[in-house]
Amino acid sequence: MSADPTGQGPQDHSGRAGPTRGRGDPAQLVPAAAGGDRTAVARLISLVERGGPPARQVGRLTFPRSGNAYTVGITGAPGAGKSTLADGLIRLVRAAGQEVGVLAIDPSSPFSGGAILGDRVRMQDHAVDPGVFIRSMATRGHLGGLALATPEAVRVLDAAGFPLVLIETVGVGQVEVEIAGEADTTVVVVNPGWGDAVQANKAGLLEAADIFVINKADRPGAKETARDLEMMLMMTQDLGEWTPPILTAVATTGEGVDEVWEAVGRHRVFLDQAGLLARRRSSRLESEVRAIVSSRLEQHAYQACRGEEFHGLLSRVAARQLDPYAAAEQVLRTSGGGS
Amino acid sequence: MSADPTGQGPQDHSGRAGPTRGRGDPAQLVPAAAGGDRTAVARLISLVERGGPPARQVGRLTFPRSGNAYTVGITGAPGAGKSTLADGLIRLVRAAGQEVGVLAIDPSSPFSGGAILGDRVRMQDHAVDPGVFIRSMATRGHLGGLALATPEAVRVLDAAGFPLVLIETVGVGQVEVEIAGEADTTVVVVNPGWGDAVQANKAGLLEAADIFVINKADRPGAKETARDLEMMLMMTQDLGEWTPPILTAVATTGEGVDEVWEAVGRHRVFLDQAGLLARRRSSRLESEVRAIVSSRLEQHAYQACRGEEFHGLLSRVAARQLDPYAAAEQVLRTSGGGS
C-alpha cells in the first residue's frame, strides 16, 4: 500500500478545507517520513502539491533535513520510453540494494496513471517493494506552480532518506524542460528518426542534457539520429568539460540500460571531482529564491494585466487615446504594486 | 546640421539637471518636429533616451500623432554589412522621393559613430540631405531600457511625419533581437559561411526574420549558406503563410539591394492583404504595455535580489539554515513590494 501512493495523490480531494489535525500535520509527518513511514511521505507531497500555508510548513521542516539525495532527471517527448527506462534504472538501483524515490511529472507517464497494460504490470512489481516510492505530481493551477513545487517534493523525498530521486518529466514546454534540467544529472530520451532530434532541439532539451539516450534503438535510423544529435550539439552548444554521451538502448528488453546507469555514475563522479556538484546545487538554490521572488511579482503582473479593465485600457491604446506608459501606470496603480 | 544629429546624442551631457525651458520643452518641440524641424526631432530623441519625466511627456505628446510610419528592422552580426545595406535602401527610398528616418541601435554601426572611413563618406551623402534623418541610440543603464526606449524613439520619427523608419540593431543578445523583431518587416543580414547561419540561429534571429539577405555574396559559400538557412528554417520554424525569402546581395556595389527593397514591399503587401499589419501593431502595443508593467516589477525584483543582504540570505540558504521561501519572503518584505 505505502509504495503505491497514487491513491494519495491529486485524486485525494476529499473536500476538507485543510488537512486533518494529526493525519495532516507536517510537524508530525516529517519525522514520521524520516523514520521510514511511506504514507507520511505521500501525505507530505500531497500537502506540497496543494500549496498554501501547510506547504510552506512542509518546506520549512524538510529543508534542513535535505541536501543528501542525488537527483536524476529523465525527460523527452511523450512516448519516447522514459518510464520504461526509469523502470529499468529502478531495477538496477534496487539490485544494488539502494532505495529510490520517483517523481513523475509527465501526464502521459504510466507512473502518473496514463498507462498501457504492460507498463502497469511492470509498475506493480515496484508497488510491493518498500524500497521504491513512486509518486505523480499534478500541475497546480498557478504561475510557476510545478516548477516551484517540484524541488519541494524532491526535498520531501530527500528528507525521508532516499539517497536517489528520479524525476521524470515530459520534455515539452519550458517549465517541464526547466524542471528536468534542475537535476544533478539530466538524461534526455529520444527515439530514432530525424524529427525527434529536431523536436528535442526546439524544446530546448539539447541544452539541458548531460546524457542522451536513443531509446527504441532496434528501430531503423538510430545511427542517423546519433549523428543528428552530434551535429546539433556542435551547432548549438558551447561544450564545456563534459560532452554529453549519446547512448543507445532498447528499454523494453533492458538492452543498454546498464550503460545509461554507468553514464549517470560517470557524470556524478565528474561533477564531484570538478567541484561542480556543490556549486550547481548552490546556484540552483539561488535560482529557486529568485524564481520565488519573480513568481510572486509575476503573479502580481499577471493579475494586473488581465480582465475587462485591462482590455479596456488596451483598446484605448490601440485607438491612440492613451499611451503605453500611461496604460502601464494605470495598471500598476490599480493593482497597487510595483511602485 | 539637422540631418547629422549624432552631436545631440548621449554625448550631449551638459550637466544640466533637466532640459532648458523652451529648447527642451516637449510641448514646443513636438509640434516643431511635426512641422519639419529636424533639430527638434533630435532633441526629442535625446529626451527619450535620457528617460524620466521629460521622456514620459514626449511619449504622451507623440503617441496620438503616431501610427503612420512603416518600420523596417535590419539586424545581423557585427560586420555583416547592415549599415551598407541600410545605406543602399536609403538611396532607393530617396530616389523614389520618400523621406526616411533611421535609428541605429548597433554600437558598431557607422551610423552610430564606430565607422571606417568609407562608411563615413557614404554617410555624409545623407548628412546633407534633409529628407534623411539618422540617429543613434545608446544603451540606457537600466533593465529593459533600450527595448522600451526604441518604440518611443520610433514614435518621435513617426510623429515627425517620416513615412518610413529603418531600425538597425546588431543581432546579438535577446534585447537587440527583440527590438529588430518589433518592426513591421524584419530583415536579417548574414554572410556566406556556415558559422554565420548557426550564429543567427543561436541568437534567435531565425524566428525574427521576415526576409534573409546573404550579404557579401561574392565571397565563397553563399549557396551553402542559403541551403543551411533553408534547412534551419525547416528544422526550427513552423512556417505560416509567409516563407521568408533568402536573398543574396553585395551591398558595397549595390548588387541585390533592389531585390531586398522589393521583398520588403512584397512583405508589406502580404501583411496588408492578410489583415496582419493592424493586428501585429495592436499586439505590439499590448506587448509594450505588458513589457512596461513587467519591467517595473522586474526592476523591483532586481533591486530586491542584490546587495549584501541578499547574498547573506543566500549563504544561510546554502547552509540550510533558511529555506528558499523564507528567504524570498524576507527579500519581498525588505523591498516592500509584490505582497
Cα-atom Rg of chain A, whole angstroms?
Answer: 22 Å
Strands of the largest sheet of chain A, in order across it? Answer: 3-2-4-1-5-6-7
Note the overall shape of chain A. globular
Classify the secondary structure makeup of chain A into a structural class: alpha/beta
Protein chains sharing the most extensive interface: A-B, 46 and 46 residues
First-last Cα distance of chain A: 52 Å
Oligomer: homodimer
What low-confidence regions of chain A span 5 or more consecutive residues with pLDDT below 50? 1-21, 113-121
Description:
- Two copies of one chain form a homodimer.
- In chain A, about 45% of the residues are buried.
- Mean pLDDT of chain A is about 80; it is low at about 1-20 and about 115-120.
- Chain A contains 14 helices and seven strands.
- Chain A is globular, with a radius of gyration of 22 Å.
- Chain A is of the alpha/beta class and about 350 residues long.
- Chain A has a seven-stranded parallel β-sheet, sandwiched between helices.
What's the arrangement of secondary structure elements?
The structure is a homodimer of 339-residue chains.
Chain A: H1 26-34, H2 38-50, H3 52-62, E1 70-76, H4 82-95, E2 100-104, H5 117-127, E3 132-136, H6 145-159, E4 164-170, H7 174-181, E5 185-190, H8 194-202, H9 205-208, E6 211-215, H10 222-236, E7 246-249, H11 257-273, H12 276-304, H13 307-318, H14 324-335
Helix pairs in contact in A: 1-2, 2-3, 2-6, 4-11, 6-7, 8-10, 12-14
